[in-house]
Amino acid sequence: MTETILLTKLKFPPITEQMDLIKRGTSEIIPEEDLVKKLERSANEGTPLNIKLGCDPSRPDLHIGHSVVLRKLAQFQSLGHQAILIVGDFTGMIGDPSGRNATRPSLTLKETREHGETYFQQASKILDANRTKIVYNSDWLGKMSFEDVIKLASKYTVARMLERDDFTKRYKAGEPISIHELLYPLAQAMDSVAIKSDVELGGTDQKFNLLVGRDIQREHGQEPQVILTMPLLVGTDGVEKMSKSYDNYIGISESPKEIFGKTLSIPDSVIYIYYELASDISLSELKGVKHQLEDSKVNPRDIKRRLARTLVRMYHNEEAAIQAEEEFDRIFIKKEVPDEVEEFKIDDNIAEFNILDLILKVNFAPSKGEARRLVTQGGVSIDGNKITDFNYTVKLNDGMVLKVGKRKFIKFIK
């Protein structure tokens, strides 16, 4: 994407208004006074700031935990600044060790490119794609010679690298740390140099890397970027950070009913956090949510339902949000079957199944052990009747509906 030539000065909102939005949900701004100075200069000169966000191509499927920094980037866009999304196709071949206690597997350049394209397609649900500059860091990192790498490496010490928490833990535990991992923060720092970053966004687990960027920019005679870190969103379990590994995520590309249902499953204690970090409601609406949550007369369930509708609207549309809520009420309150249910054709030669075998047959559980757990915990029913005996034999009939868990339905047909 080519850079836009500014023929006239841009007008920006007042600095206080910009800072109010920028601070929303933010963990740290380092240093905050420098950000104010950058915003003042931007307003006086009528030129936008370069706001940098690095895209990790090892995770092509985004959930609303990833949306936290993307939403902050979109907020900078709404204030008139230039959003720059850096696809780490080159650094993806190194593998970012941030927050890891072991080396992360590296990817091929082809894989990182493919994942990067998928990332941007999903990120466009949050960002204004037409006003987002997309760059690949292989464009500059791939051109560096070995001499360039040695000179870059001379700008930082091993002692300082080992100050990073994950490296420190691995070093003390006697776990291996490869030399190429030490180069990752330096490579990310060169991204900031290449695009002349004014502000870099990242999760709290990226703080070390972002600070290295400031140091390397100084070494290249640039004004150091301000770093802005965002909290890591807790998952639907309310305990661990949102991750597919913990199966506590809400995918931004999931169906409306999945987003709605998963949102309603979050603990009341994290409702406000989700509104603040993952929703697009205004600051005044956010204050209203806080007051309602503090009011003992207001049922948190109602506030959570509004959050679920908001998230579905954001990633689909208003109509989908209304339909998702209606379907949820049909299934979980009125105990009805959804309008659209997957169908499974009955084999005339096999009319009976053990309940565990049937659950495996329709791919509603990955193993017999998991199927047994679902049955014994009361998560399986046929035509509304719970099955709690894992030795139960099912006689398949035309139109019979099997329900497993909260949202899995299948209808058997002849």
Which descriptors would you attach to this protein?
single chain, 414 residues, alpha/beta, Rossmann fold, Tyrosyl-Transfer RNA Synthetase, Structural Genomics Hypothetical 15.5 Kd Protein In mrcA-pckA Intergenic Region, Chain A, 6-stranded mixed sheet, 5-stranded mixed sheet, 17 helices, 13 strands, 44% helix, globular, disordered N terminus
What's the structural domain tally?
Answer: 3
Q: Provide the CATH superfamily of the largest domain.
A: HUPs
Give me the CATH fold name of the largest domain: Rossmann fold
Q: Mean pLDDT, rounded to whole units? A: 88
User: Uncertain runs with pLDDT below 50, 5 residues or more?
Assistant: 1-7
H-E order: HEHEHEHEHHHHHEHEHHHHHEEHHEEEEE
Query: Which CATH architecture of the largest domain would you pick?
Result: 3-Layer(aba) Sandwich
Helix tally equals 17
User: Taking strands numbered 1, 2, ... along the chain, how are they ordered across the largest sheet?
Assistant: 1-6-5-2-3-4
- Name of the CATH class of the largest domain: Alpha Beta
Q: Kindly state the percentage of residues in helix.
A: 40-55%
This entry's quaternary arrangement is single chain
Shape type: globular
Portion in beta strands = 5-15%
What value does the Rg take, in angstroms? 25 Å
